[in-house]
Amino acid sequence: MNVNIGALRYDGDKESGPLSVTMPRRTKAEAEATREALLDAAEEVFFDKGVARASLEQIARHAGMTRGAIYWHFKDKADLFHALLNRVRLPFEELLDEVRETSGIDSPLETLRLACHNSLVRIERPRDRRTHAILLHRCEFFSDINPLEMQNRLVRECQKSMYKQLRHAHDLGLLAPGLAPETATRLLQSMLSGLVHDWLRDPASFPLRDEGGALIDTLFGLISWNA
């Protein structure tokens, strides 16, 4: 039985798997706007209820659409969740590139320090804050969603970029004597992770950009060698 609901038509007799959705011809801009609206709704519902307890029906209703609209853009809830993360994800290497392009700084330590500051500024933005809070504090193991593996992958990517900078600083004699770049990388990664975890758990507890920035500067003062 083909049922028409608004702009969507789906096969109401399907008993398993995603709904079979037929969409009318739409412009690329309209399709992208619909996709963004669904992601906005998912962000709010996941943040409120947690990923495992949120249903696609709740997300569709929150967006003012049908569940079929979700299946037109996303395979399942896991696919929707991954798209939500990718919307705010910016590899640390790109933060480093931004600093290089806008400041013209050559020092690997100063480039890394400014990139760390910029990462805190980004996380303070509402969309980034909610999405990272979902991943860290409101996401349980569910179906194809493994939050621990996602977090570990992000940490590994970040550490790789940090180590590259700190290795370069070490080769230039810019790290404190006796400090290995591996140790400096672990120090920096641990501090940033702790800052973000604590702040996302209770954003009112301290100003991330100010106090976090001061801690970043203090750490870089400790690991740098000024002969």
TrEMBL record:
PROSITE patterns xref list: HTH_TETR_2
DNA-binding region in chain numbering: 55-74
A molecular function (GO) term: transcription cis-regulatory region binding
Origin: domain of life: Bacteria
Keyword entries, A-Z: DNA-binding, Repressor, Transcription, Transcription regulation
Record-annotated HTH tetR-type domain positions: 32-92
Cited Pfam families: TetR_C_2, TetR_N
Protein name from the UniProt record: Transcriptional regulator, TetR family
